[in-house]
Amino acid sequence: MTRYIDVNDLCYLVSQKGLPTCISEMAEYIRADYLRWPDFEKCARLANHSPDGVIELMPVSDASLYAFKYVNGHPKNTLAGLLTVMAFGALGDVDTGQPVLLAEMTLTTAIRTAATSALVARYLARDNSRSMALIGNGSQSEFQAVAFHAMLGINEIRLFDIDAQATAKLAANLKAFPALKVILAGSVAEAVRGADIVTTVTADKAYATILTDDMIEPGMHLNAVGGDCPGKTELDRRIVERARVIVEYEPQSRIEGEIQQMPQDSPVTELWRVINGQQPGRENARQVTLFDSVGFAIEDYSALRYVLDVAKALEVGRELELVPDLADPKDLYARLAQQPAAQQKKRA
Question: Which of 26, 41, 178, 210 could pair covalently with 115 via S-S, beta carbons 3.0-4.6 A apart?
Answer without folding.
Answer: 26
